[in-house]
Write a structure and sequence with these properties.
It is a single chain. By secondary structure, this protein is α/β, with parallel strands linked by helices. The chain contains 2 helices and 6 strands; from the N terminus they run E-H-E-E-H-E-E-E. A 6-stranded mixed β-sheet has the order 3-2-1-4-5-6, with helices on both faces. Helix 1 links the parallel strand 1 and strand 2. The longest helix is centred in the first third of the chain and has 16 residues. The relative contact order is 0.23.
Length: 125
C-alpha cells in the first residue's frame, strides 16, 4: 500500500512526467497497491493506479510538498510514500509518519541539493 505523490508543478517537464509514470508502472507490476496523488501546492486529483497513465495531469502552479504528506498521515495511512519530483522546493514542514522516498527526475536537482529532507533521496537515471 503505497502513496505515490507526483509533483505536477510548473517546473516539472512533460519528459519528467513520462519518466515518473514509467517507474510507477514498474512498481505496480511488482504487486503494490498504489494510490497516486497529483499535486503542486495542493492535491488536484487522486486515483488508484491500474497500469494506465492518466490522459491529463493536473497542476502547473508552484510547489509545496506538505499536502500529500498530511494526506498520508491523516487519511490514507500507507506503508510508504514515494514522492516523484524535480526537487526544486524547500523541505516539507510536515513530518511523515511513514517511510518516505524522494525520487528526483533525471533533469531535476541533485540529491545533495535537498537539505532538510527526511527519508531516502534517489536520483533517477
Amino acid at each position: 500500500k503505497i502513496l505515490v505523490a507526483i509533483d505536477t508543478s510548473g517546473s516539472v517537464a512533460e519528459d519528467d512526467l513520462k519518466e515518473f509514470f514509467q517507474e510507477i508502472y514498474h512498481i505496480w507490476r511488482q504487486g503494490a497497491e498504489i494510490l497516486v496523488v497529483e499535486c503542486d501546492t495542493m492535491i488536484h486529483q487522486q486515483y488508484y493506479y491500474k497500469g494506465q497513465n492518466p490522459k491529463v495531469v493536473k497542476g502547473g502552479g508552484g510547489t509545496d510538498f506538505n499536502a500529500p504528506i498530511e494526506f498520508a498521515n491523516t487519511k490514507y495511512k500507507p506503508d510508504a510514500i514515494v514522492y516523484f519530483t524535480d526537487g526544486y522546493c524547500d523541505a516539507p514542514k510536515v513530518k511523515s509518519r511513514f517511510p518516505i522516498m524522494w525520487l528526483l527526475s533525471t533533469a531535476g536537482a541533485k540529491e545533495t541539493d535537498l537539505k532538510g529532507f527526511e527519508g531516502r533521496i534517489l536520483k533517477m537515471n
